[in-house]
Amino acid sequence: MRAAPKPFAVLVAACAWCAMAATAVADVRITRAVVDGRDIPIDVSAATDVAPIRVPSNAGRVVFVFEGEAGEGDAGGANVPAGAADGTSPPLLPALRGTRLRYRLDGVDADWRDEPAHGRLSLIFLDAAGSTVGSSDAKMHGTSEGWRGLPETSPLKSLSLTGVAPPLASSVIVNFLSNGGDAPVGAMAIDDVVLSIAAEGREPRRHALSLDGLGDKVHPLATPTGWGRSGSRGEMSRVAVRPESGKPILVIEDDDASEYGSWVSRGIAVPVEPGDVVTASWRAAYSLGLGGRSAASYDRLEPGTYWFRVAAFLPGGQPTAAEAGVRVVVVPPWYWRRDVWAGCAAVGLVAGALVARAVSLRRMRSRLDEMERVHALDRERARIARDLHDDIGAGLTEIAMQTDWVRRDVQGLASAATVARAEKACASAIDLVRSVDAIVWAVNPANDTLDRFVPYLTHSAEQFLDAAGVSMRFDVPAQVPTLPLAGAVRHDLFLVVREAINNAVKHARPQVVRLGLRLENGAVHGRHANSPQLVITIEDDGQGFPLSASVPGAPNAGRSGLANMRRRVEDLGGRFVIDSRPGAGTRIEVVVPLETDPAKVPGLRKAGTS
Amino acid sequence: MTAIQVGTIQVAVVEDDARLRQTFIDVLESSPEFRCVGAFATGAEAVDGIPKLAPDVVIMDVNLPDTTGVECVKILAPQLPATQILMVTVYQDPDTTFQALAAGAHGYLVKPVLPERLLEAIREIRAGGVPMSRTIARKVIETFRSREAAEEAGTFTARSPTASPDEESLTSREQQVLELLVEGFSYKEIAQRLGISPSTVGTYVQRIYEKLHVSSRREIMARRRPGRG
After folding, report:
1. What local confidence, expressed as pLDDT, does residue A566 receive?
2. Are A404 and B42 inside 8 Å of each other by CB?
3. Structural domain boundaries of chain A?
4. Crossing angle of helices A350-387/A416-443, nearest 10°?
């Protein structure tokens, strides 16, 4: 739970004016560090120097937890309202507070790091009674290009969002808000909101949601005709004038992670009919980060001294004076320490020791480099997996659903060939969704253990066999140990088992397919002596086939996958055995050695036994 | 607009992808049997809006931008005992599916959910049908076993004094059904083996789920009050 920040300063202009002159007293604290799951309370605020955190060099991950809370009168004067720029009239808005937290680890990070967060623009469809019947969202993430710290002077970029009016919809409105699901702090502005409504058989309509009725001298808390301030703290929403054009824009400056501001076009409801395609286009500038409480993690720090700093920034990103820091010392292993080597010298081992030291130093360095590279790769593959899942997976799912619907619609009306084409398109989309699933699963380092692999394998096998209407039997141990199993190995094993089950269903017409899995001690090849091995069997009682027809290169189109399966297993240092005779079913045995040293498995995390 | 028919199944949809959400709505609205009474893009909106709607069925995506579908089930299920929750999973992820079922969901579908399959699955759970895959059955057995072991060792003592052991532990028949499921048998095959009807197998599975829900809720409560019990 996020700690509730202090209430916003009372909305009295004079107080805010004074406050702007005061020094920033936001309270930024680093509350604890967690080293490989071990909690180290710190509680450092401001510039107090406390004893450094000592981290052993073999530690995997260091997490710093920090939080910020706005103090009374903490202000940077960033939001001097347009109407008060001449200094004659009192300011019209309370000063913003430095609640946006940024951090850096000197020695690792070249600049302050921001945790990007989201703001949103939503299309909200209303029914005749004014109740919401549907919505579509566009997220504005992180910081827009060219951001200059203030919404009114930053360049605006063009964005758009399309939604389809749901059943019962009779009008559509726009909601612009500083709440994207992750409690942001920041500043954002929009302008030139236009709704275009297209429908079959009608001319497209354009409605500009203009900002009118503000008068000549725009008060920051004025309200354009048809728009309304909303959100949990509406006063975060204001209007500003862009100096270069003199045009008003809608602004939200959010300096409180637990609240949000919003502008809603409630008075300009644009009529729509169900099925209409509504496109909103607008121009926006934004910079959104996290406030309140956050954490930063660093993996595999090299021995040395670092300085972890957290600072409070204004919503737009301007620095305040509030900062806290703590020193971090990553202690080198004993064989890096000079006194140990001095001792060695004293007993006359100087020469040998120096050689050993050089070697171990180099080894340690290259190992650290390797780990850093592996972690960077891990992060990269996790990101690719997320993108694959979010974009391509969702899109393919949509295609599968829509084509199946087309098939249903044309059934009985169109020719059998047309129906078959729709079926084929749908089946292809489903296959692709499954393939994306399998890739996403394989590249997720959280799945790098045997106990995650086994249920995944049985789950997909049973879904496939159920769909094919084939009975199945499993012989799988109740408890599977948490042994490391790297992504590439998992993926290859999964594909081999899937291919084996596929072949059985497609070619053998079996009653029952049996899937067995067990762990054995022993070696497949000399280099894996004494490491455990995984034995997977796939057995069917179908029609079988003469083995001579399955030698690689033999004319046997249906079984050409066998050579591929064998190659995959042998590349893993394993053994692939197939036994089949016409009329006597088919049995495939896959034996692969398991690497038991977690350090050699990229991206392995300690997995609990849930 | 047509008036809502008596007996129409009211469905709420929680799905963050706007296109998919719309397709779910369209599929539901294409049949007079169903009515989509609400669609939500985030967990926060769903947890806030669904109790007011009290729909018959909730279609819940497992991955949401602000939280997980499982967390939503934990909040919604105890508030809406008459509402059935159907999870939609993308990753063939038995762990998450199991967590959702343990938290009070009544069934699950793996994406892509074809339109007819969606409607069929809603009809099935309304008719009291409860699916349990072999992989889920294995996790159920594990859960009950580890819980018993913990109780014997005295590390898990939050059993409420009023609950009789029958409410929370499996009968030998239920145990038998689970073990056959784990071995790969279908409901039909289990029915044949035990000389009962497939719908009786369904009833056993339903009771197993109920016991799982009771003890999961208790566990959640126990965890929320550390140091007590």
Report:
1. 92
2. no
3. 13-114+292-331, 118-290, 333-443, 445-610
4. 150
Tell me which H or E stretch contains A163.
Answer: strand A157-164
Mean pLDDT of B132-142: 85
CA distance B98 to B132: 10
Which residues of chain A carry a pLDDT beneath 50?
1-24, 72-88, 524-528, 550-557, 598-610
Tell me if B9-126 shares its fold with B134-224: no
Q: Which pLDDT tens digit goes with each residue over A426-458? A: 989 988 888 888 888 887 777 888 888 998 899
Under 8 Å between Cβ of B111 and B19 = no
Predicted local distance difference test score (pLDDT) of residue A537: 96
pLDDT score for A249: 93
Domains of chain B, residue spans: 9-126, 134-224
Q: In terms of CATH architecture, what is B9-126?
A: 3-Layer(aba) Sandwich (3.40)
Q: Which pair of structure tokens corresponds to residue A499? A: 């291919």
DSSP E strands, A512-607: 512-520, 533-540, 575-580, 586-593
Which of B39, B139, B184 minimises the CB distance to A474? B184
In angstroms, the CA B218 to CA B211 distance is: 11
The minimal CB distance from A400 to the residues B65, B95, B112 is found for B112
Give contacts of A 193-232 with B, CB under 8 A.
none
Residues B11-61: pLDDT tens digits? 999 999 898 899 999 999 999 999 999 999 999 999 999 999 999 999 999
Fold of A445-610: Heat Shock Protein 90 (3.30.565)
> Would you call A471 an interface residue with chain B, using a CB distance cutoff of 8 Å?
yes
Count the Cβ atoms, other than its own, within 10 Å of residue A281: 15
Question: Confidence band (pLDDT; 50, 70, 90) for B159?
Answer: very low
- For residue B167, pLDDT over 70 is answered with no
| Whether A441 contacts chain B with CB within 8 A | yes
- Nearest CA distance, A472 vs chain B (angstrom): 5
Specify the CATH number for A13-114+292-331; select among 3.40.50.970, 2.60.40.10, 3.50.50.60, 3.30.70.20: 2.60.40.10
Whole-number pLDDT of residue B91 = 61
One-letter amino acid for residue B76 of the chain: L
- β-pairing, B57-61 vs B9-14, is parallel
Multiple choice CATH, B134-224, 2.60.40, 2.20.200, 1.10.10, 1.10.1760: 1.10.10
**Exposure string (b/e) for A578-605, b if CB count within 10 Å is 16 or more?**
bebeeeebbbbbbbbbbbeeeeebbbbe
